[in-house]
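re: ur question from earlier - yeah i can do the single chain one, its not a big deal. heres the input i used so u can compare w yours
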Amino acid sequence: LLFAFSTYYRNKKYFGGVIASIQYDFWKTVIEFEKFSYPLGTEFIEYSLQDNPEDRFFYKGKIIDEIEKDENFKNKINEILEKNNNKRRFNITDGLNYVSSDLFLALNNTTINVIGNKEENIWKLDITITDRYDFTDFKEINEYLDKSLIRGVLGSTANNLAMISVASGVMHEYNVTINFSINKGCDENE
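and the output i got, formated as tokens:
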């Protein structure tokens, strides 16, 4: 593993194909072992292993269901509605991360745009979440700590290994866009 993710050997032409092959097999193994615990996170990793992944667009499905259940998402929507309660319309863009470990592994440092229209005491919210699936930031263990030191170590290590895989051309970056709508009563607090 140290050999496969070594930046020293990555730059050696005679090892390039071997390094890429080992990294690819490593990620496929991670996907197999974690696909039931982190189905969205592993789906996004697997998609990045394609040579030229196209941007992804979601309008329905499990990812939207998981976002709607996430506590950070709910809090962000409530915060936006509280700040704009006296308006009939608004258009807000802000940052959003997730409590759900699976969403956090799939989407990190996302941008959320919420367009709200109030009609008869109901907010009609059109939501767009965008992300660049990439691994450009070195992560410290404490950035992945929630309730488990082991999860923090594994999360930061996986991110940092993925940075090397992107630089090696094994993993590839792509854009993610998620569009959906929700209706929320003006007096609802979720």
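The chain is about 40% helix and 25% strand. not sure if urs matches, ping me
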